[in-house]
Amino acid sequence: MGVELLLVAATVSRLANPEIHLAAYGGVVFPLSLLIEAPIIMFLVASTALCKDWPAYRLMRNFILTLGGCLTLLHVVLAFTPLYSVVIETLLGAPESIWEPARMGLQMMTPWTMAIAVRRFWQGLIIRGGKTRLVGVGTLIRLAVSASVLLVGLLMVSISGVIVATAALSAGVIAEAGFMFWCVRPLVRGLQQNHPVAEHPLTLQRLSRFYWPLALTPLITLATISIGSAAISRMPRALDSLAVWPVLGGLTFMFRSVGIAVQEVVVTFSDRSEFFRPLKQFVWLVSLGASGTLVLIAATPLSVIWFESVAALSSELAALASTALWMAVILPALSPWESYFQGELVYRGATTYVTQAVSLYLLGSSSLLFLGVVYGQITGLYVGVAATLTGISVQMWWLRKHSHNMGRMTVSRIKGSSGISG
User: Are 239 and 381 in contact (CB under 8 A)?
Assistant: First the structure.
């Protein structure tokens, strides 16, 4: 998925008016599309944790189809009605040159939300069934389809960059969702044929209590992307910063992404104590390896090669991106630990702490963005990266604090029930 974002940015950079279309895609279309689909992002971990039998499957299937349909309707209203002008012009304050390209791109992203919804539901079931390899295969299929659409856009030349980008993203996720549906059918048949009565059956009330705090987590996180775009639009070098933002974000996300899946691993194996030590060792390995590799890129000519030759940025924009990359090298080291602590809390059902942590992320990052707008002397891209670092640091501190507290409570209960004294 990280590679997909890089390919999209590199393709748009090679088409007409790259600064405008990169800014439209990275500053408006992608952040808003992510914000709309945010409530369904965490359904993967919910499916992994709760989809244990046939009644639970049916309840969660109906829940995600309803939620995905409502969010798709919201996307349509935003992309095809006058509400668009209110959001883009008034709330985001985006530069006038990107208004129309961004509208067309947002309209092309209409299938995105529902495809993501059903895909993540089925992926959770596949992970729970121990067939994680199929998730990787599905991602490769998505990448192949997206890359094919991008290649066609490059060869045709006449199609605008934001249309090529959004068509590629939509086609890729639809193809991946189709593959997940094909893979999940044997698991669904197994649930249907063998469904003993659960001691504590999943109900809509229990699902809602478990899931809605999780749903707020990416919603708040992704809201900060839109807030960041709005803030950057009001700082020095706004268009340049918005154009570089998706390119830099794609590169850092590729290294951050290796730690994101740690959450599902923790949820899956937290009931097996023998995995505790090797799992922490693995998280350390991922953390240091991901950030170490990004430091290597930032410290060598690889950064210039990447931003100028691969991403096809102008030398001026490449210099801006290379400087900001130094600020972002720590991000991949934080992601696996954030996922680790969050996974422990999700496993224990303490999803409220996850919501509290991401609220602190919003507070920390927004505060720095606000100061950047008020001061008005620092390039928007640099303030955006600094705000992201601030938010993630505060969020991870809160997750770690409560994860450790709950861990100590669990150990105390075990000792108490077994008659072991401290």
Answer: no
Least Cα distance to 60 among 8, 123, 121 occurs for: 121
The phi and psi torsions of 300 (rounded to 5 degrees) equal -125, 170
| Cβ atoms 127, 86 nearer than 8 A | no
Q: For residues 388 and 370, what is the distance between their CA atoms, to the nearest angstrom?
A: 13
Domain ranges of the chain: 1-201, 203-422
Burial 92-112, CB ≥16 within 10 A → b, else e: bebbeebbebbbebbbbbbbb
CA distance 380 to 224: 14
Distance CA 87, CA 92 (A): 6
The answer on pLDDT for 179 being more than 50 is yes
pLDDT per residue as tens digits for the range 248-259: 988 898 898 888
Residue 263: both structure tokens together: 């959450």
Give the number of other Cβ atoms within 10 Å of residue 289's Cβ.
Answer: 16
The radius of gyration computed from the CA coordinates of the chain, to the nearest angstrom, equals 22
332-391: pLDDT as tens digits:
999 999 999 988 888 887 888 988 998 999 999 999 999 999 999 999 999 999 999 999
**If DSSP codes are grouped into helix, strand and coil, which group holds residue 198?**
coil
- Name the phi and psi angles at 158, rounded to 5: -70, -20
Q: pLDDT (tens digit, 9 = 90+) per residue, 7-32?
A: 888 898 888 888 899 889 888 898 89
One-letter amino acid identity for 169?
L
Other CB atoms within 10 Å distance of the CB of residue 344? 23
Where helices occur in 42-160 by DSSP H, the ranges are: 43-50, 54-80, 83-85, 99-108, 112-128, 132-156
Q: Quick: pLDDT tens for 297-316.
A: 999 999 999 899 888 888 99
pTM score, two decimals? 0.72
Alpha helices in 261-275 (DSSP H): 262-269
CA quadruple 303, 309, 312, 314: dihedral, nearest 10: 70
* Three-class secondary structure of residue 13 per DSSP: coil
Distances (CA, A) of 334 to 252, 321, 392: 12, 21, 8
Helix (H, G, I), strand (E, B) or coil at 270: coil
